[in-house]
């Protein structure tokens, strides 16, 4: 059995007996306990940080709280966070008009270069940065949001007040690494795997409403779907 695998197995057993916020033994102590080099322990700890099992706190390491699990369904981030006992929040990064690129224009049924509203926000859970969301909406239809909408609140709730009911969406999930800008906004490193979600939502009249491109920290959040035959 490779040493790294044995160390990881032993660390899993240690973490199973600890609770959220409990300190993890130091690299030195673990290296002595497992009779391996500190670099072997260090790599195993890095893997656990990436997975969200542990997190750095000061000069030590503690057990992380469980990941927030978001359902893959047509609901707002706010609704999903509240359903899991978390306090949602948003930080506005930018909100302005931009010309639609070819892909966005096609999904929204617009001409290339036609103006769209671009809303970019950092998503929070209990004050912790876990996601970066970019929403694109047809400007001609939703210009009124500039006068009526608070961007730190749920966009879907605001759309409902305008009489817009979302009916269906197409969503794609991929794994990516953060750019330096994205890492700075999410307060993580560029080596941390992110989950990228791309969604196009349609209302009950069959009209495209939004294109959303979201990045989520893989160490803070997971997604699940209920499947039926």
Automatic annotation (TrEMBL):
SUPFAM superfamilies: Chorismate lyase-like (SSF64288), Winged helix' DNA-binding domain (SSF46785). Residues 1-66 form the HTH gntR-type domain. Keywords: DNA-binding, Transcription, Transcription regulation. Gene3D superfamilies: Chorismate lyase-like, Winged helix-like DNA-binding domain superfamily/Winged helix DNA-binding domain. Pfam families: GntR, UTRA. InterPro entries: Bact_HTH_transcr_reg, Chorismate_lyase_/UTRA_dom_sf, Tscrpt_reg_HTH_GntR, UTRA, WH-like_DNA-bd_sf, WH_DNA-bd_sf. The keyword DNA-binding applies. Coiled coil: none annotated. The keyword Transcription regulation applies. This is GntR family transcriptional regulator. It comes from Nocardia callitridis.
């Amino acid at each position: 059995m490779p040493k790294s695998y044995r160390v990881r197995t032993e660390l899993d057993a240690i973490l199973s007996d600890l609770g959220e916020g409990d300190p993890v033994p130091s690299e030195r102590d673990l290296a002595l306990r497992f009779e391996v080099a500190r670099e072997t322990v260090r790599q195993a700890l890095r893997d656990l940080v990436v997975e969200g099992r542990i997190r750095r706190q000061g000069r030590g390491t503690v057990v992380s709280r469980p990941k927030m699990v978001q359902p893959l369904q047509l609901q707002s981030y706010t609704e999903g966070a509240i359903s899991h006992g978390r306090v949602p929040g948003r930080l506005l990064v930018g909100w302005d008009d931009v010309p639609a690129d070819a892909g966005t224009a096609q999904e929204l049924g617009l001409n290339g270069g036609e103006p769209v509203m671009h809303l970019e926000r950092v998503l929070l859970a209990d004050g912790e940065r876990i996601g970066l969301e970019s929403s694109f909406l047809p400007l001609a239809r939703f210009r009124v949001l500039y006068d009526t909408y608070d961007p730190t609140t749920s966009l879907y709730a605001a759309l409902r007040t305008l009489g817009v009911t979302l009916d269906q969406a197409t969503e794609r999930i991929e794994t990516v690494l953060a750019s330096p800008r994205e890492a700075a906004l999410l307060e993580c490193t560029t080596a941390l795997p992110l989950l990228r979600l791309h969604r196009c939502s349609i209302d009950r009249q069959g009209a495209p409403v939004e294109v959303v491109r979201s990045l989520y920290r893989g160490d803070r959040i997971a997604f699940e779907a209920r499947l039926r035959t």
